[in-house]
Amino acid sequence: MEAVTGHVSHGAMIRLRVLVVLALLAMAGVKAAGQAAPSPYAGSEACQTCHEDIFNAFAKNPHHLVETDARPGWKAGGWQGRACESCHGPAQKHTESASAEDIRNPAKLAAAAAGRVCLSCHLNQPTHAGRLESSHAKNDVSCTACHKVHGNGPSGLVARTASAINQQCSSCHTGVWAQFQRPSHHRLPEGAMSCVDCHNPHGSIRPAMTQAFGANEPGCLKCHGEKRGPFAFEHAPVRFEGCRSCHEPHGSANPRMLARQEVRNLCLECHANLPRVTNTNAALGVVPPAFHDLRSPRFRNCTVCHQKIHGSHVDRNLLR
Amino acid sequence: MKLLMAIMSLVPLAAQQPPPDAKPAAASETASPVPASESWLAGSIDLGYRGRTNVAGSLDTYRSVVNLGSGPKLLGAEFTLTDPKRRIFDEVRVRAYSWGDDPYATFHLSAKKAKLYDFSSDYRDIAYFNYLPSYADPLLGRGIVLNEQSFDTRRRFAAFELDLLPGNWFIPYLAYDRASGSGTGVAAFVSDANEFPVPNRLRDETNLYKGGVRFELRRFHATVEEGGTAFKDDQSLYQAAGPQNFGNSTNPFLGQTLYLSNLLGAYGIRGTSFYSRALMTANLTSWLDLYGQFLFSQPDSSIHYQQSDNGNLVLQSQLLFYNGQQYLVSAAAKLPHTSASFGGELRPLRRVRVIESWLTDRLHEGGTATSVNQLFTAPNRTTQITALLASSLATNYSQQQTDLFFDVTQRLTLRGAYRYVWGEAGDTILPPAGLASADRGKLRRNVAIGGVTFRPSQRLSISGEAEGASTGGTYFRTSLYDYQKVRAQARYQAAASLSLSADFSLLNNQNPLPGVHYDYLAHQNSLSFLWSPGGGKTWEFQGSYSRSTLRSAIGYLSPQDLQPQQSLYRDNAHTATALVDLKVPGISGFAPKITAGGSFFISSGSRPTSYYQPIAKLWLPFGKNVAGFAEWRYFGYGEAFYLYEGFRTQMVTAGLRLTR
């Protein structure tokens, strides 16, 4: 029994020694492998060492969530503890060399490349459904042109108050902002409205990146609901080319932001086609009947009579 | 022993589990973006009083353009509430501006709790006063100054939105919007051979409800939303029995003077709609992003219009004079509207991107109207006219575009694109009136686009885009036809304290078709700068100047004799804004600040106009949490052709800012 025991014990001991050696070798192998390929990531605390002001400010930033949270849209396993490197890339080399060459700075990248850094997390969100159709995307306006990634003010990453939004947009669209200084304008300079009330800077299915009301109706109707219809008798340009066929929505010296100084000019420039039984290939809009004698002041302002110019439920001539 | 062996053999595996760079710890404990030492309430409130001098010139125009009045005001309030224990909310933000009978008051409230909800609400109350004598006044030529299209209304907007489980991959949301308008105005009651200015009561309301779900996954996103609206418009025209209203035409018609004795007209408009919205984005591989949208809405409306009027009026088509009328209209319309877009960005090479997009928008409207017009021509004698009309309006618009981007270097990107646009549109009312029964148009347009983005250094960026199109058919005479568009922007950081930006745009549109000969040219050049030496510690100066010109000429036919005429429009404008901030050395760190500047607009051409708005402001800190301010503003408006519309006024506002 003892011999058997001793035999078993001896064999077991040999196997045990072999396994211990193998385990030690495996551990050593892992350690060696770890030494061969150190992580390229340094962690946010390493960034704090030199960039403490940014690090502290970042703690109040909505992006700080990246530091503490995992989310399906983000990198597998999350970026916890490495929020800085989620945008700036692996920083281990930079921490060792302290060279700007060894770290990615999105501000110095081409706009599209900088945008892709943001989109690596933010692409699959509803704001980007029309992004590729937007003139911002096509003119290489990067996300950081509007969003301050390190921003920690009360508004977070982007301007929120009407006046701040308008200031931001007008810093590029100087000419558009000048139009708002005209006497007849939407109330943007007064702070009652902002550019994003009418435009979606991320893109829209509607022309000029304008907001949509409901699903696909013009965003203007959100405020001007009484002009929405549908009307039994429509005014075709309203539907086909929108409010801009007659109005300058950013501002005008003409009353009601009209594109012409007198209403009759605006109307007659389109209503100048001779009537035909079937008007198949000419522009829409026929010349008014002959009793509209422009020499009489009564007929110089079309909307006195055609007051339901945006569409009527009652009268085919848009009179009531 | 086996257990020991197993544990020993698993040691290396366990050693491989946590990557040395992963630091999952210290997670939620450090999540608080607000250090505990900060106050639970932070913000400021501006209270003051505004005094305005009497308006010299046209008060109606002043109210149409500026409309600021005297009185105590809540000029602004912004504060944030934070709950350190995060029980019901993490933080609540409140903003309010221009309360106290100002023409545009706004209020915003948002509240959120991480991973639970995100709520925001907005409220705006905007006065819409518009009474410009030169607009819609058919008697202006006779020196009679009035306005037959004027409003004194308020429009109020409220919006509420609630996102549940923000930050999750599954985000349900709900929203409610309300827009309403009410007030009075002047409108014209149009009868044959004359039109009568009458009081107008306006009241409309739109409620929008929507709800949806967003799925936000790593490589895929989808949003599905359903919504609907309810609308009503109870506009009414009236004129109480009393003095006769002789309307705009004082000339007798076939020897009889036309007049309106009394009127009651009521629009009972009701509308509903529902809509569906589906959005998708996906990045299936590192070199391909896809997106798609499908949008469908179907608003409908119905109306029961009732009109009762008395006077001496005429039905021209039958040369029938009448002294009483009852007019009833029942109408309905429906507007199914489908839009869709689909596209993607392909990155086949490191420097090359291709964006392909396709879009369609299809709108088909149908309406009917039944009317009964009962005319009282003599005691116990009536004439009844009934009519049934049907209308349809349809447009199918499609667009396909291919964009190619080439990054020549990291600083230079070139873009070339081609867009093809096509569509059909039609507008029909049956039975036809006269010769015109149906209008139909076709749209065919080929557009070539080129663009460049150049950033030679961190300090300078230039972008430009040029677009040229040839059109084979268009809907309207003034639509874009053969056109060229150019846009360019540049930004230059000349020094650490000086930044400049410039903006240029041009549109040249030509329609050479016989009888049209449309020639349109508009361009605008703008320059703006910000100069803040020493980071603006002592003073800062910002300004902009914009020069725009617009020239339009198009042929038309004068209705009375069908003679060819030309409609000319010119607008040459200069706009400038400037603002200087000067920080005066103060005592104990409380430095007063003076701001001065303003804007001016001056134009010549078809409607020469000038509009000046200088401003000066003094800011006086009294302590850490209290500051006083005083502001002076001047408004000067003038029109060369309508001198009676000019006005001048100035106002002073003084108040306190309380900060916590």
Question: What proportion of the residues of chain A form beta strands (DSSP E)?
Answer: under 5%
Instruction: Characterize the biggest β-sheet of chain B.
Output: 30 strands, antiparallel
Helix content of chain B: under 10%
Global geometry of chain B: globular
Please give the number of β-strands of chain B.
30
Rounded to an integer in angstroms, the radius of gyration calculated over CA atoms of chain B is: 32 Å
What is the strand tally of chain A? 5
Largest protein interface, residues of each chain: A-B, 157 and 213 residues
Order of adjacent strands in the largest pleated sheet of chain A = 1-2
Low-pLDDT segments, ≥5 res of chain A: 1-8, 28-34
The geometry of chain A reads as: elongated
- Helix amount of chain A, in percent? 25-40%
What kind of oligomer do you see? heterodimer
What does this structure look like?
The complex is a heterodimer of chains A (320) and B (660). By secondary structure, chain A is mainly α. Among the domains of chain A are: 45-158, no CATH class; 231-320, no CATH class. Helices cover 35% and strands 3% of the residues of chain A. Chain A has 13 helices and 5 strands. Chain A has helices spanning 2-36, 44-50, 52-58, 65-68, 83-88, 92-97, 111-122, 135-138, 162-170, 174-179, 195-198, 236-240, 263-268; strands spanning 212-213, 217-218, 233-234, 278-279, 311-312. In chain A, the strands form 2 sheets. Chain A has a two-stranded antiparallel ribbon. A two-stranded antiparallel ribbon of chain A has the order 3-5. In chain A, a hairpin with a 3-residue loop joins β1 (212-213) and β2 (217-218). In chain A, α2 packs across α3 (52-58). The longest helix of chain A is centred in the first third of the chain and has 35 residues, at 2-36. The radius of gyration of chain A is 34 Å and the shape is elongated. Chain B is mainly beta and 660 residues long. Chain B is built from 2 helices and 30 strands. Chain B has a 30-stranded antiparallel β-sheet that branches. The radius of gyration of chain B is 32 Å and the shape is globular. Mean pLDDT of chain B is 90; it is low at 1-36. The chains are: A mainly alpha (320), B mainly beta (660). At the A-B interface, α1, α4, α7, α8 and α10 of A face α1, β4, β6, β8 and β9 of B. β4 (278-279) of chain A pairs parallel with β20 (436-457) of chain B.
